[in-house]
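Now for today's protein.

===
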Amino acid sequence: MQERVKKLELEYKKFLIKKYLKYFLSLIFCLSLIFCSYFIFNEIQKKEVLLKQVLKEKQDLVSKLQKAKIQEEKNKIIKEKLRETNLNQFEKKQELQFEISSMIYNLSVLKNEFYKSPSFDKALLLSKMYYQNKDYEKSIFWSLKANEIDKNHKEPWFLFIKAKEALGENDEAKRALETYKFYYEIEVDKF
């Protein structure tokens, strides 16, 4: 019987070892599960925070882009209004510039007067008269003379460009127009 008791005691010890081992393994498994869950949860939180930051930056960029588009449209409208205003002023000035007074001048007398006492007004008047007479080469010559005397006036440029266009020298007229735009810092598409 003693042997039987020893055997039972031995089995009981084994049973207890297995029981404690199961508890210990269960505890390790639970702790591992909690540990892994914590890290997974932490990573998810980091990703959510990062996602929120990215979404906020995207919204900021979209907002800035919309503001930039609005500002671009405003600038476009303002430029268009300025261009229209400049064109209207330009057309009014051009209309006034090509009016010739009712005084009758003889071209040869006016040229002689110019050579005696050169003046901007005489050179400009000669250029206008030659332009009206469709003598475009001479109109170009006198508009250049007027421009040499006084570079601050725009009328000689107009006459030069118009005469070049009348002669069919559109490339040269375009270059003169570009030079005119650059010199006077004004935007004009066409006369």
In short: Residues 98-103 have pLDDT under 50 and may be disordered. Residues 110 and 122 are 7 Å apart (CA to CA). The radius of gyration is 47 Å.
